[in-house]
Amino acid sequence: MAAPQFTSAAEFREVMDRVFTLMSEDPEMGPRLRDADVPQRFEFTDLDEVVNIRAARPGEPGNLTWVWSDDVDWEPKVRMTMSSETANRFFQGRENVALAIARRRIKTGGDVKAALALIPITKPVHAGYRAMLADEYPHLVV
């Protein structure tokens, strides 16, 4: 059976924008991610997409800010490269990051320890992401 796939880069960005919004707006997760302040750069090789994410600055809305570009005024503390399939599996709670790094499904750079420390904070997003997929993007459910 073929792995679930995004229909396009546009669909991938749409879905990821929604999951980042879920994390940013969550009353527990959002402030914890903002306070952790770990700027990250994610590259999705199969779709030729890149997103940079950082904590919102004072006066900015929400808890996280993300830009689908490398044209940003901050340096990532962590860099991760993966396929959109791996990202989809991760947000559903179906991809163990440490194992994916060991098996090179995720390639990393920078302060990987800081990124791994965020995993317990982001764990609650899995249920919301799976529910969103089941309702609106069933072809992506793993």
List the helices and strands and how they pair.
Blueprint: H1 9-25, H2 29-36, E1 40-44, E2 49-55, E3 64-67, E4 78-82, H3 84-91, H4 97-102, E5 107-110, H5 112-122, H6 125-136
Parallel strand pairs: 1-4
Antiparallel strand pairs: 1-2, 2-3, 4-5
Task: Provide an overview of this structure.
The protein has about 140 residues and is an alpha+beta fold. It has one domain (about 10-130): 2-Layer Sandwich (Nonspecific Lipid-transfer Protein, Chain A). The protein has helices at about 10-25, 30-35, 85-90, 95-100, 110-120, 125-135; strands at about 40-45, 50-55, 65, 80, 105-110. Strands 3-2-1-4-5 form a five-stranded mixed β-sheet. The longest helix has 17 residues, at about 10-25. It starts with 8 loop residues before the first helix and ends in a 6-residue tail after the last helix. The relative contact order is 0.20.
Short description:
This protein is an alpha+beta fold and 142 residues long. Helices cover 44% and strands 18% of the residues.
Total number of domains: 1
Cα-atom radius of gyration:
14 Å
| Topology-level CATH name | Nonspecific Lipid-transfer Protein, Chain A
Text of the CATH class? Alpha Beta
Computed structural class: alpha+beta
- Sheet-strand content, in percent, reads 15-25%
Record field, number of beta strands: 5
The main sheet orders its strands as 3-2-1-4-5
Helix count?
A: 6
Which residue ranges are poorly predicted, with pLDDT under 50 across at least 5 consecutive positions?
A: none
Mean pLDDT: 95
- How do the helices and strands follow one another from N- to C-terminus? HHEEEEHHEHH
Distance between the termini: 11 Å
What would you say the CATH architecture is?
2-Layer Sandwich
Fourth-level CATH superfamily = SCP2 sterol-binding domain
- Helix fraction, binned, reads 40-55%
- Global shape: globular
Largest beta-sheet characterization: 5 strands, mixed
